[in-house]
From TrEMBL:
SUPFAM superfamilies to which the protein is assigned, alphabetical: (Trans)glycosidases (SSF51445), beta-N-acetylhexosaminidase-like domain (SSF55545)
Pfam family, one: Glyco_hydro_20
Organism: Populus trichocarpa
Domain Beta-hexosaminidase eukaryotic type N-terminal stretches: 34-151
Main enzyme class: hydrolase
Full protein name: Beta-hexosaminidase
Domain Glycoside hydrolase family 20 catalytic intervals: 172-529
Molecular function per GO: beta-N-acetylhexosaminidase activity
GO cellular component: membrane
Domain of life: Eukaryota
Family that this chain belongs to: Belongs to the glycosyl hydrolase 20 family.
InterPro entries: Beta_hexosaminidase_sua/sub (IPR025705), GH (IPR017853), Glyco_hydro_20_cat (IPR015883), Hex-like_dom2 (IPR029018), HEX_eukaryotic_N (IPR029019)
Biological classification of the source: Eukaryota, Viridiplantae, Streptophyta, Embryophyta, Tracheophyta
GO aspect biological process, one term: carbohydrate metabolic process
Catalytic activity, EC: 3.2.1.52
Length: 582
Protein backbone atom coordinates (compact mmCIF):
# COMPACT_ATOMS: atom_id res chain seq x y z
CA UNK A 1 0.00 0.00 0.00
CA UNK A 2 1.53 3.36 -1.01
CA UNK A 3 2.01 6.07 1.60
CA UNK A 4 -0.63 8.31 0.06
CA UNK A 5 -2.99 5.33 -0.26
CA UNK A 6 -3.86 6.16 -3.88
CA UNK A 7 -4.42 2.85 -5.65
CA UNK A 8 -4.10 2.97 -9.40
CA UNK A 9 -6.89 1.56 -11.52
CA UNK A 10 -4.55 -1.15 -12.84
CA UNK A 11 -3.59 -2.19 -9.32
CA UNK A 12 -7.20 -2.00 -8.27
CA UNK A 13 -8.22 -4.29 -11.13
CA UNK A 14 -5.45 -6.73 -10.26
CA UNK A 15 -6.56 -6.85 -6.62
CA UNK A 16 -10.15 -7.40 -7.67
CA UNK A 17 -9.20 -10.31 -9.94
CA UNK A 18 -7.00 -11.74 -7.23
CA UNK A 19 -9.89 -11.53 -4.80
CA UNK A 20 -12.20 -13.37 -7.18
CA UNK A 21 -9.65 -16.15 -7.65
CA UNK A 22 -9.19 -16.83 -3.95
CA UNK A 23 -12.32 -15.34 -2.48
CA UNK A 24 -12.85 -18.14 0.02
CA UNK A 25 -9.45 -17.58 1.53
CA UNK A 26 -9.62 -13.80 1.43
CA UNK A 27 -13.01 -13.57 3.03
CA UNK A 28 -11.67 -15.47 6.01
CA UNK A 29 -8.40 -13.57 6.31
CA UNK A 30 -8.92 -10.04 5.04
CA UNK A 31 -9.69 -8.92 8.60
CA UNK A 32 -6.93 -11.18 9.84
CA UNK A 33 -5.52 -8.67 12.30
CA UNK A 34 -8.50 -9.00 14.63
CA UNK A 35 -7.55 -11.08 17.70
CA UNK A 36 -9.26 -13.02 19.16
CA UNK A 37 -11.16 -13.99 16.06
CA UNK A 38 -14.81 -12.89 16.31
CA UNK A 39 -17.51 -15.53 16.44
CA UNK A 40 -19.11 -14.15 13.28
CA UNK A 41 -17.65 -11.57 10.91
CA UNK A 42 -19.19 -10.79 7.53
CA UNK A 43 -17.21 -8.73 5.02
CA UNK A 44 -18.27 -10.06 1.62
CA UNK A 45 -16.38 -7.46 -0.40
CA UNK A 46 -13.13 -6.22 1.13
CA UNK A 47 -13.56 -2.48 0.78
CA UNK A 48 -12.28 0.25 3.02
CA UNK A 49 -12.81 3.94 3.49
CA UNK A 50 -10.88 6.74 5.11
CA UNK A 51 -11.25 7.31 8.82
CA UNK A 52 -11.84 11.00 9.38
CA UNK A 53 -9.11 12.77 11.38
CA UNK A 54 -12.01 14.28 13.32
CA UNK A 55 -13.44 10.86 14.12
CA UNK A 56 -15.61 10.80 17.26
CA UNK A 57 -17.16 8.16 19.51
CA UNK A 58 -20.46 8.87 21.20
CA UNK A 59 -21.74 6.78 24.08
CA UNK A 60 -23.90 7.10 27.18
CA UNK A 61 -22.01 8.24 30.26
CA UNK A 62 -20.74 5.50 32.51
CA UNK A 63 -17.98 5.81 35.11
CA UNK A 64 -15.97 2.99 33.56
CA UNK A 65 -17.09 3.02 29.92
CA UNK A 66 -16.50 6.73 29.41
CA UNK A 67 -12.75 6.55 30.23
CA UNK A 68 -12.54 3.54 27.92
CA UNK A 69 -14.20 5.50 25.10
CA UNK A 70 -11.71 8.35 25.49
CA UNK A 71 -8.80 5.92 25.61
CA UNK A 72 -9.91 4.04 22.50
CA UNK A 73 -10.54 7.19 20.47
CA UNK A 74 -7.00 8.37 21.17
CA UNK A 75 -5.61 4.92 20.38
CA UNK A 76 -7.54 4.67 17.13
CA UNK A 77 -6.29 8.04 15.90
CA UNK A 78 -2.66 7.62 16.94
CA UNK A 79 -1.73 3.92 16.69
CA UNK A 80 -1.19 3.84 12.89
CA UNK A 81 -0.95 0.06 12.69
CA UNK A 82 0.64 -1.34 9.56
CA UNK A 83 -0.08 -5.06 9.10
CA UNK A 84 3.04 -7.09 8.42
CA UNK A 85 1.34 -8.42 5.30
CA UNK A 86 -0.89 -5.68 3.87
CA UNK A 87 -4.43 -6.95 3.30
CA UNK A 88 -5.76 -7.05 -0.27
CA UNK A 89 -8.35 -4.34 0.16
CA UNK A 90 -9.76 -1.80 -2.29
CA UNK A 91 -10.49 1.76 -1.33
CA UNK A 92 -14.20 2.37 -1.87
CA UNK A 93 -15.04 5.16 -4.30
CA UNK A 94 -18.58 5.53 -3.00
CA UNK A 95 -18.15 5.39 0.77
CA UNK A 96 -17.83 8.65 2.66
CA UNK A 97 -15.10 9.00 5.28
CA UNK A 98 -16.11 7.42 8.56
CA UNK A 99 -16.83 10.27 10.93
CA UNK A 100 -18.25 8.60 14.01
CA UNK A 101 -18.95 5.48 16.00
CA UNK A 102 -22.20 5.47 17.96
CA UNK A 103 -22.43 3.15 20.97
CA UNK A 104 -25.75 1.93 22.32
CA UNK A 105 -25.84 0.04 25.64
CA UNK A 106 -29.06 -1.62 26.78
CA UNK A 107 -28.14 -2.13 30.45
CA UNK A 108 -25.82 0.44 32.01
CA UNK A 109 -26.17 -0.97 35.51
CA UNK A 110 -24.87 -4.54 35.05
CA UNK A 111 -21.79 -4.99 37.27
CA UNK A 112 -18.57 -6.60 36.10
CA UNK A 113 -18.84 -10.11 37.49
CA UNK A 114 -18.98 -13.68 36.30
CA UNK A 115 -21.74 -14.38 33.75
CA UNK A 116 -22.16 -10.73 32.77
CA UNK A 117 -23.17 -10.40 29.12
CA UNK A 118 -20.14 -9.44 26.98
CA UNK A 119 -21.83 -9.73 23.59
CA UNK A 120 -21.81 -6.93 21.05
CA UNK A 121 -22.75 -6.21 17.45
CA UNK A 122 -20.70 -3.92 15.23
CA UNK A 123 -21.83 -2.55 11.87
CA UNK A 124 -19.68 -0.39 9.59
CA UNK A 125 -21.94 0.39 6.61
CA UNK A 126 -20.76 1.15 3.10
CA UNK A 127 -22.91 4.23 2.47
CA UNK A 128 -22.89 5.96 5.86
CA UNK A 129 -20.38 8.08 7.74
CA UNK A 130 -21.41 6.53 11.06
CA UNK A 131 -20.67 3.05 12.42
CA UNK A 132 -22.81 1.49 15.12
CA UNK A 133 -21.83 -0.60 18.13
CA UNK A 134 -24.62 -2.17 20.16
CA UNK A 135 -24.07 -4.09 23.39
CA UNK A 136 -26.15 -5.46 26.22
CA UNK A 137 -23.74 -4.07 28.84
CA UNK A 138 -20.85 -1.64 29.07
CA UNK A 139 -18.51 -4.62 29.25
CA UNK A 140 -19.72 -5.87 25.89
CA UNK A 141 -19.27 -2.35 24.55
CA UNK A 142 -15.63 -2.45 25.68
CA UNK A 143 -15.12 -5.71 23.78
CA UNK A 144 -16.65 -4.13 20.69
CA UNK A 145 -14.44 -1.06 21.03
CA UNK A 146 -11.41 -3.33 21.06
CA UNK A 147 -12.57 -5.04 17.87
CA UNK A 148 -13.24 -1.71 16.16
CA UNK A 149 -9.83 -0.38 17.17
CA UNK A 150 -8.12 -3.42 15.65
CA UNK A 151 -9.94 -2.88 12.34
CA UNK A 152 -8.29 0.51 11.80
CA UNK A 153 -4.92 0.56 10.09
CA UNK A 154 -2.56 2.68 8.00
CA UNK A 155 -0.55 5.86 8.30
CA UNK A 156 -2.13 8.94 6.73
CA UNK A 157 -4.98 8.69 6.16
CA UNK A 158 -6.19 5.91 8.38
CA UNK A 159 -8.37 3.24 6.79
CA UNK A 160 -11.28 1.22 8.14
CA UNK A 161 -13.32 -1.57 6.50
CA UNK A 162 -16.82 -0.84 5.23
CA UNK A 163 -19.66 -3.22 4.54
CA UNK A 164 -18.59 -5.16 7.60
CA UNK A 165 -20.80 -6.71 10.27
CA UNK A 166 -19.71 -8.47 13.46
CA UNK A 167 -21.68 -10.32 16.07
CA UNK A 168 -19.54 -11.55 18.90
CA UNK A 169 -19.79 -13.18 22.30
CA UNK A 170 -17.40 -15.40 24.29
CA UNK A 171 -17.73 -19.16 24.45
CA UNK A 172 -16.45 -19.17 28.04
CA UNK A 173 -17.21 -16.50 30.60
CA UNK A 174 -14.04 -16.89 32.69
CA UNK A 175 -10.88 -16.07 30.73
CA UNK A 176 -7.94 -15.22 32.89
CA UNK A 177 -4.31 -14.94 33.83
CA UNK A 178 -2.95 -15.93 37.24
CA UNK A 179 0.12 -14.01 38.42
CA UNK A 180 2.11 -14.93 41.52
CA UNK A 181 3.46 -11.77 43.20
CA UNK A 182 4.81 -13.43 46.33
CA UNK A 183 7.84 -15.35 45.12
CA UNK A 184 9.00 -12.30 43.20
CA UNK A 185 7.49 -8.84 43.44
CA UNK A 186 5.96 -6.95 40.51
CA UNK A 187 5.52 -3.17 40.72
CA UNK A 188 2.03 -1.78 40.20
CA UNK A 189 2.90 -0.49 36.73
CA UNK A 190 3.73 -4.02 35.58
CA UNK A 191 0.38 -5.27 36.83
CA UNK A 192 -1.43 -2.43 35.09
CA UNK A 193 0.40 -3.14 31.84
CA UNK A 194 -0.63 -6.78 32.12
CA UNK A 195 -4.27 -5.85 32.69
CA UNK A 196 -4.14 -3.50 29.69
CA UNK A 197 -2.81 -6.30 27.50
CA UNK A 198 -5.46 -8.65 28.88
CA UNK A 199 -8.20 -6.25 27.84
CA UNK A 200 -6.74 -6.03 24.33
CA UNK A 201 -6.96 -9.84 24.17
CA UNK A 202 -10.51 -9.85 25.59
CA UNK A 203 -9.37 -11.62 28.76
CA UNK A 204 -11.47 -10.65 31.74
CA UNK A 205 -10.03 -12.08 35.00
CA UNK A 206 -6.75 -11.09 36.63
CA UNK A 207 -6.27 -13.80 39.26
CA UNK A 208 -3.87 -12.22 41.72
CA UNK A 209 -1.98 -14.80 43.78
CA UNK A 210 -0.83 -12.15 46.23
CA UNK A 211 0.70 -14.02 49.15
CA UNK A 212 2.65 -17.23 49.69
CA UNK A 213 5.37 -18.66 51.93
CA UNK A 214 8.01 -16.46 50.36
CA UNK A 215 6.56 -13.02 51.04
CA UNK A 216 3.41 -11.25 52.20
CA UNK A 217 3.36 -8.00 50.20
CA UNK A 218 -0.28 -6.95 50.83
CA UNK A 219 -0.76 -4.22 53.44
CA UNK A 220 -3.90 -4.96 55.45
CA UNK A 221 -5.36 -2.42 57.88
CA UNK A 222 -6.32 -5.04 60.48
CA UNK A 223 -3.06 -6.98 60.24
CA UNK A 224 -0.29 -4.54 59.26
CA UNK A 225 2.42 -6.72 60.84
CA UNK A 226 1.98 -9.38 58.16
CA UNK A 227 3.32 -7.12 55.40
CA UNK A 228 5.61 -5.15 57.69
CA UNK A 229 7.47 -8.30 58.71
CA UNK A 230 6.59 -10.74 55.94
CA UNK A 231 7.27 -8.69 52.79
CA UNK A 232 10.60 -8.34 50.99
CA UNK A 233 10.82 -4.71 52.10
CA UNK A 234 9.04 -1.38 52.22
CA UNK A 235 9.58 -0.89 48.50
CA UNK A 236 7.88 -4.20 47.70
CA UNK A 237 4.41 -3.67 49.12
CA UNK A 238 0.89 -3.25 47.80
CA UNK A 239 -0.92 -0.61 49.82
CA UNK A 240 -4.71 -0.25 49.94
CA UNK A 241 -4.29 2.70 47.57
CA UNK A 242 -2.33 0.47 45.16
CA UNK A 243 -5.09 -2.13 45.27
CA UNK A 244 -7.72 0.55 44.61
CA UNK A 245 -5.71 1.75 41.59
CA UNK A 246 -5.43 -1.78 40.20
CA UNK A 247 -9.13 -2.56 40.77
CA UNK A 248 -10.23 0.72 39.17
CA UNK A 249 -7.89 0.20 36.23
CA UNK A 250 -9.33 -3.28 35.82
CA UNK A 251 -12.88 -1.95 35.75
CA UNK A 252 -11.98 0.63 33.12
CA UNK A 253 -10.56 -2.18 31.00
CA UNK A 254 -13.29 -4.76 31.64
CA UNK A 255 -11.02 -6.97 33.77
CA UNK A 256 -12.06 -8.40 37.13
CA UNK A 257 -9.40 -8.59 39.85
CA UNK A 258 -9.77 -11.88 41.72
CA UNK A 259 -7.66 -12.00 44.92
CA UNK A 260 -6.11 -15.17 46.26
CA UNK A 261 -4.93 -15.47 49.85
CA UNK A 262 -3.58 -19.01 49.86
CA UNK A 263 -4.02 -21.07 53.03
CA UNK A 264 -3.56 -23.21 55.05
CA UNK A 265 -0.40 -24.20 53.15
CA UNK A 266 1.91 -21.68 51.49
CA UNK A 267 1.85 -19.43 54.55
CA UNK A 268 5.46 -19.41 55.76
CA UNK A 269 5.65 -15.62 55.42
CA UNK A 270 2.93 -15.26 58.06
CA UNK A 271 5.33 -16.68 60.66
CA UNK A 272 7.41 -13.51 60.61
CA UNK A 273 4.54 -11.76 62.40
CA UNK A 274 2.78 -14.75 64.02
CA UNK A 275 5.20 -17.64 64.56
CA UNK A 276 2.77 -19.42 66.91
CA UNK A 277 0.14 -20.05 64.21
CA UNK A 278 2.47 -21.50 61.53
CA UNK A 279 3.89 -25.02 61.60
CA UNK A 280 7.37 -25.93 60.23
CA UNK A 281 8.15 -22.31 59.36
CA UNK A 282 11.70 -21.57 58.23
CA UNK A 283 12.69 -25.22 58.37
CA UNK A 284 14.68 -26.85 55.57
CA UNK A 285 12.17 -27.94 52.98
CA UNK A 286 13.49 -31.46 52.23
CA UNK A 287 15.73 -32.79 55.00
CA UNK A 288 18.79 -34.78 54.00
CA UNK A 289 18.42 -38.55 53.82
CA UNK A 290 14.62 -38.31 53.91
CA UNK A 291 12.19 -39.60 51.34
CA UNK A 292 10.17 -37.25 49.14
CA UNK A 293 7.04 -38.28 51.03
CA UNK A 294 8.62 -36.93 54.22
CA UNK A 295 9.40 -33.47 52.85
CA UNK A 296 8.09 -30.36 54.63
CA UNK A 297 7.22 -28.50 51.43
CA UNK A 298 7.24 -29.19 47.71
CA UNK A 299 9.79 -26.44 47.17
CA UNK A 300 11.95 -24.22 49.36
CA UNK A 301 9.75 -22.02 51.55
CA UNK A 302 8.00 -23.94 54.32
CA UNK A 303 5.04 -23.13 56.54
CA UNK A 304 1.37 -24.06 56.99
CA UNK A 305 -1.25 -22.54 59.27
CA UNK A 306 -2.00 -24.62 62.35
CA UNK A 307 -5.67 -25.67 62.39
CA UNK A 308 -5.51 -26.51 66.12
CA UNK A 309 -4.46 -23.03 67.24
CA UNK A 310 -7.46 -20.73 67.87
CA UNK A 311 -5.30 -17.69 67.10
CA UNK A 312 -5.00 -18.95 63.53
CA UNK A 313 -8.63 -18.16 62.84
CA UNK A 314 -8.60 -14.72 64.44
CA UNK A 315 -5.72 -13.65 62.24
CA UNK A 316 -7.10 -15.36 59.16
CA UNK A 317 -10.55 -13.82 59.54
CA UNK A 318 -8.98 -10.38 59.83
CA UNK A 319 -7.02 -11.06 56.65
CA UNK A 320 -10.06 -12.32 54.76
CA UNK A 321 -12.25 -9.48 55.99
CA UNK A 322 -9.74 -6.85 54.87
CA UNK A 323 -9.21 -8.55 51.52
CA UNK A 324 -12.94 -8.70 50.83
CA UNK A 325 -13.20 -4.99 51.68
CA UNK A 326 -10.39 -4.16 49.26
CA UNK A 327 -11.64 -6.25 46.35
CA UNK A 328 -15.26 -5.94 45.13
CA UNK A 329 -14.95 -9.17 43.10
CA UNK A 330 -17.68 -11.67 44.14
CA UNK A 331 -15.23 -14.59 43.94
CA UNK A 332 -12.62 -15.08 46.68
CA UNK A 333 -9.80 -17.55 46.09
CA UNK A 334 -8.88 -19.27 49.36
CA UNK A 335 -6.10 -21.51 47.99
CA UNK A 336 -6.20 -24.92 49.66
CA UNK A 337 -3.44 -26.51 47.57
CA UNK A 338 -0.38 -28.60 48.40
CA UNK A 339 -0.94 -29.38 52.06
CA UNK A 340 2.19 -31.35 52.91
CA UNK A 341 1.75 -33.95 55.68
CA UNK A 342 5.31 -33.57 56.99
CA UNK A 343 4.82 -29.90 57.82
CA UNK A 344 1.81 -30.46 60.04
CA UNK A 345 3.43 -33.54 61.56
CA UNK A 346 6.36 -31.39 62.70
CA UNK A 347 4.13 -29.59 65.23
CA UNK A 348 3.91 -31.11 68.76
CA UNK A 349 0.21 -30.31 69.20
CA UNK A 350 -0.63 -31.93 65.89
CA UNK A 351 1.55 -34.91 66.77
CA UNK A 352 -0.55 -35.35 69.90
CA UNK A 353 -3.78 -35.04 67.90
CA UNK A 354 -2.61 -37.70 65.44
CA UNK A 355 -1.50 -40.02 68.23
CA UNK A 356 -5.12 -40.08 69.44
CA UNK A 357 -6.34 -41.44 66.11
CA UNK A 358 -6.86 -38.05 64.54
CA UNK A 359 -6.11 -37.68 60.84
CA UNK A 360 -4.65 -34.99 58.66
CA UNK A 361 -7.87 -34.78 56.69
CA UNK A 362 -9.72 -34.10 59.94
CA UNK A 363 -7.37 -31.19 60.52
CA UNK A 364 -8.29 -29.82 57.11
CA UNK A 365 -11.97 -30.37 57.83
CA UNK A 366 -11.62 -28.31 60.99
CA UNK A 367 -9.84 -25.59 59.03
CA UNK A 368 -12.48 -25.50 56.29
CA UNK A 369 -15.35 -25.53 58.80
CA UNK A 370 -13.77 -22.55 60.56
CA UNK A 371 -13.16 -20.44 57.44
CA UNK A 372 -15.48 -21.44 54.59
CA UNK A 373 -18.73 -20.29 56.27
CA UNK A 374 -17.11 -16.97 57.16
CA UNK A 375 -16.13 -16.29 53.56
CA UNK A 376 -19.63 -17.20 52.39
CA UNK A 377 -21.10 -14.90 55.03
CA UNK A 378 -19.25 -12.03 53.35
CA UNK A 379 -21.26 -12.72 50.18
CA UNK A 380 -18.40 -14.38 48.36
CA UNK A 381 -18.20 -17.55 46.31
CA UNK A 382 -15.15 -19.52 47.44
CA UNK A 383 -12.61 -20.73 44.89
CA UNK A 384 -10.18 -23.47 45.92
CA UNK A 385 -7.47 -25.31 44.08
CA UNK A 386 -8.59 -28.85 43.26
CA UNK A 387 -6.36 -30.40 45.97
CA UNK A 388 -8.89 -29.67 48.68
CA UNK A 389 -11.18 -32.32 47.18
CA UNK A 390 -8.84 -34.49 45.10
CA UNK A 391 -5.53 -34.71 46.98
CA UNK A 392 -4.41 -38.27 47.69
CA UNK A 393 -3.39 -37.61 51.30
CA UNK A 394 -5.15 -34.57 52.78
CA UNK A 395 -8.62 -33.61 51.57
CA UNK A 396 -12.20 -32.99 52.67
CA UNK A 397 -15.37 -34.68 51.54
CA UNK A 398 -17.95 -32.99 49.32
CA UNK A 399 -20.23 -32.37 52.31
CA UNK A 400 -17.80 -29.70 53.50
CA UNK A 401 -17.92 -27.84 50.17
CA UNK A 402 -21.48 -27.08 49.00
CA UNK A 403 -21.31 -26.76 45.21
CA UNK A 404 -23.52 -23.67 45.20
CA UNK A 405 -20.81 -21.78 47.09
CA UNK A 406 -17.71 -23.52 45.74
CA UNK A 407 -15.62 -23.42 42.57
CA UNK A 408 -12.62 -25.70 42.07
CA UNK A 409 -9.61 -24.75 39.99
CA UNK A 410 -7.86 -27.71 38.39
CA UNK A 411 -4.13 -27.83 37.72
CA UNK A 412 -3.19 -31.52 37.64
CA UNK A 413 -3.87 -34.50 35.39
CA UNK A 414 -5.29 -32.53 32.47
CA UNK A 415 -8.87 -33.22 31.39
CA UNK A 416 -9.15 -36.16 33.81
CA UNK A 417 -9.31 -33.91 36.86
CA UNK A 418 -11.67 -31.53 35.12
CA UNK A 419 -13.94 -34.52 34.58
CA UNK A 420 -13.70 -35.52 38.26
CA UNK A 421 -14.65 -32.01 39.37
CA UNK A 422 -17.64 -31.40 37.12
CA UNK A 423 -18.96 -34.95 37.44
CA UNK A 424 -19.13 -34.26 41.18
CA UNK A 425 -21.35 -31.25 40.48
CA UNK A 426 -18.76 -28.51 40.99
CA UNK A 427 -18.02 -25.60 38.72
CA UNK A 428 -14.47 -25.68 37.34
CA UNK A 429 -11.80 -23.23 36.28
CA UNK A 430 -9.23 -25.01 34.13
CA UNK A 431 -5.51 -24.30 34.57
CA UNK A 432 -4.11 -27.70 33.63
CA UNK A 433 -0.34 -27.49 34.16
CA UNK A 434 0.22 -29.77 31.18
CA UNK A 435 -1.15 -27.03 28.93
CA UNK A 436 -1.62 -23.72 30.76
CA UNK A 437 1.41 -23.27 33.07
CA UNK A 438 3.60 -20.57 31.56
CA UNK A 439 6.57 -21.10 33.89
CA UNK A 440 7.21 -24.70 32.81
CA UNK A 441 10.34 -25.72 30.95
CA UNK A 442 12.71 -23.17 32.49
CA UNK A 443 14.31 -25.55 34.96
CA UNK A 444 13.74 -25.79 38.70
CA UNK A 445 15.19 -23.25 41.08
CA UNK A 446 16.75 -25.33 43.93
CA UNK A 447 20.54 -25.32 43.83
CA UNK A 448 22.83 -28.34 44.15
CA UNK A 449 20.48 -30.33 41.93
CA UNK A 450 22.01 -33.47 40.45
CA UNK A 451 19.34 -33.83 37.78
CA UNK A 452 21.32 -31.28 35.76
CA UNK A 453 24.35 -33.60 35.72
CA UNK A 454 23.24 -36.79 33.99
CA UNK A 455 25.80 -38.96 32.21
CA UNK A 456 26.51 -37.40 28.81
CA UNK A 457 25.48 -40.61 27.09
CA UNK A 458 22.16 -40.96 28.89
CA UNK A 459 20.30 -38.71 26.51
CA UNK A 460 18.28 -37.45 29.49
CA UNK A 461 17.81 -33.70 29.34
CA UNK A 462 15.69 -33.69 32.48
CA UNK A 463 12.59 -32.46 30.63
CA UNK A 464 13.95 -28.96 30.92
CA UNK A 465 14.73 -29.55 34.58
CA UNK A 466 11.15 -28.63 35.39
CA UNK A 467 8.50 -30.72 37.15
CA UNK A 468 5.97 -29.60 34.57
CA UNK A 469 8.25 -29.39 31.54
CA UNK A 470 8.54 -29.09 28.69
CA UNK A 471 7.84 -25.46 27.78
CA UNK A 472 4.21 -24.91 26.79
CA UNK A 473 4.23 -23.56 23.25
CA UNK A 474 1.44 -21.37 21.92
CA UNK A 475 0.31 -24.30 19.77
CA UNK A 476 0.02 -26.53 22.84
CA UNK A 477 -2.11 -23.90 24.52
CA UNK A 478 -4.19 -23.13 21.43
CA UNK A 479 -5.05 -26.76 20.75
CA UNK A 480 -6.17 -27.60 24.28
CA UNK A 481 -9.90 -28.22 24.53
CA UNK A 482 -10.77 -27.50 28.17
CA UNK A 483 -14.06 -29.40 27.88
CA UNK A 484 -12.49 -32.48 26.32
CA UNK A 485 -14.30 -35.68 27.23
CA UNK A 486 -17.20 -33.93 28.97
CA UNK A 487 -20.89 -34.33 28.34
CA UNK A 488 -22.87 -31.24 27.31
CA UNK A 489 -24.24 -30.94 30.85
CA UNK A 490 -20.77 -31.27 32.37
CA UNK A 491 -19.40 -28.67 29.95
CA UNK A 492 -21.87 -26.15 31.35
CA UNK A 493 -20.01 -26.39 34.68
CA UNK A 494 -16.69 -25.37 33.10
CA UNK A 495 -16.55 -21.62 33.71
CA UNK A 496 -13.44 -21.15 31.61
CA UNK A 497 -9.69 -21.20 32.05
CA UNK A 498 -6.60 -19.37 33.22
CA UNK A 499 -2.99 -19.54 32.16
CA UNK A 500 -0.74 -19.31 35.22
CA UNK A 501 2.62 -17.67 35.76
CA UNK A 502 4.25 -18.84 38.96
CA UNK A 503 7.18 -16.61 39.75
CA UNK A 504 9.97 -18.79 41.12
CA UNK A 505 11.93 -17.83 37.99
CA UNK A 506 9.99 -14.84 36.73
CA UNK A 507 10.02 -11.19 37.71
CA UNK A 508 9.34 -7.88 35.92
CA UNK A 509 12.29 -8.37 33.55
CA UNK A 510 10.61 -11.34 31.86
CA UNK A 511 6.95 -10.76 32.68
CA UNK A 512 5.78 -9.87 29.17
CA UNK A 513 7.73 -12.53 27.32
CA UNK A 514 6.56 -15.27 29.68
CA UNK A 515 2.91 -14.34 29.19
CA UNK A 516 2.59 -12.99 25.66
CA UNK A 517 1.65 -14.05 23.07
CA UNK A 518 1.01 -17.50 24.60
CA UNK A 519 -1.84 -16.10 26.70
CA UNK A 520 -3.26 -14.70 23.46
CA UNK A 521 -3.56 -18.28 22.21
CA UNK A 522 -5.75 -19.20 25.16
CA UNK A 523 -7.68 -15.95 24.79
CA UNK A 524 -8.87 -16.89 21.31
CA UNK A 525 -9.75 -20.47 22.15
CA UNK A 526 -11.86 -19.39 25.11
CA UNK A 527 -13.48 -16.55 23.16
CA UNK A 528 -14.31 -18.12 19.80
CA UNK A 529 -12.80 -21.60 19.91
CA UNK A 530 -9.91 -23.29 18.14
CA UNK A 531 -11.88 -24.83 15.28
CA UNK A 532 -13.25 -23.52 11.99
CA UNK A 533 -16.81 -23.82 10.73
CA UNK A 534 -16.21 -27.41 9.62
CA UNK A 535 -14.95 -28.44 13.05
CA UNK A 536 -11.28 -28.67 12.00
CA UNK A 537 -8.58 -27.26 14.28
CA UNK A 538 -7.53 -23.88 12.89
CA UNK A 539 -4.02 -23.55 14.34
CA UNK A 540 -2.55 -23.39 10.82
CA UNK A 541 -4.36 -20.20 9.83
CA UNK A 542 -3.99 -18.82 13.36
CA UNK A 543 -0.21 -18.69 12.93
CA UNK A 544 -0.20 -15.70 10.56
CA UNK A 545 -2.86 -13.87 12.53
CA UNK A 546 -1.02 -14.40 15.83
CA UNK A 547 2.25 -13.21 14.28
CA UNK A 548 0.56 -9.98 13.24
CA UNK A 549 -1.13 -9.61 16.62
CA UNK A 550 2.17 -10.13 18.43
CA UNK A 551 3.69 -7.41 16.20
CA UNK A 552 0.84 -5.08 17.14
CA UNK A 553 1.21 -5.82 20.86
CA UNK A 554 4.93 -5.00 20.69
CA UNK A 555 4.07 -1.66 19.13
CA UNK A 556 1.69 -1.07 22.06
CA UNK A 557 4.56 -1.52 24.51
CA UNK A 558 3.92 -5.20 25.37
CA UNK A 559 7.23 -7.04 25.02
CA UNK A 560 5.75 -10.23 23.59
CA UNK A 561 8.19 -12.89 22.43
CA UNK A 562 8.53 -13.65 18.70
CA UNK A 563 7.04 -16.80 17.22
CA UNK A 564 8.89 -17.00 13.90
CA UNK A 565 11.58 -15.22 11.89
CA UNK A 566 10.26 -12.12 10.17
CA UNK A 567 10.92 -13.86 6.84
CA UNK A 568 8.16 -16.35 7.62
CA UNK A 569 5.74 -13.56 8.33
CA UNK A 570 6.61 -11.78 5.11
CA UNK A 571 6.17 -15.03 3.18
CA UNK A 572 2.89 -16.51 4.49
CA UNK A 573 2.71 -20.27 4.37
CA UNK A 574 6.36 -20.83 3.49
CA UNK A 575 7.31 -21.85 7.03
CA UNK A 576 4.45 -24.29 7.49
CA UNK A 577 4.92 -28.01 7.52
CA UNK A 578 2.76 -29.97 5.12
CA UNK A 579 3.61 -33.35 6.57
CA UNK A 580 1.60 -34.99 9.34
CA UNK A 581 3.48 -35.54 12.58
CA UNK A 582 4.34 -39.05 13.66
Amino acid sequence: MTSNLVISSRCSLFLTLFYLLVSASLTATSAQWVWPKPRTLSWPIPLATILSPNFTISSPYHQHLSPAVNRYRLQILTEHHRPLVPPPVNLSNSSPPLQALTITVKDLSAPLQHSVDESYALAIPTASSTANLTAETVWGAMRGLETFSQLVWGLKPLLVPVGLDVWDSPLFEHRGIMLDTSRNYYPVDDILRTIKAMSANKLNVFHWHITDSHSFPLVLPSEPALADKGSYGNDMLYSPADVATIVRFGLEHGVRVLPEIDSPAHTGSWAEAYPDIVTCANMFWWPAESEWADRLASEPGTGQLNPLNPNTYQVLKNVIGDAVALFPEPFFHAGGDEIIPGCWKADPAIQSFLSKNGTLSQLLEKFVNSTFPYIVSLNRTVVYWEDILLDANVKVGPSFLPPEHTILQTWNNGPNNTKLIVSSGYRAIVSSSEFYYLDCGHGDFPGNDSQYDPPPTSGDSGNGGSWCGPFKTWQTIYNYDIAYGLTPEETKLVLGGEVALWSEQADPTVLDVRIWPRASAMAETLWSGNRDESGKKRYAEAMDRLNDWRHRMVNKGIRAEPLQPLWCIKNPGMCNTVHPSD
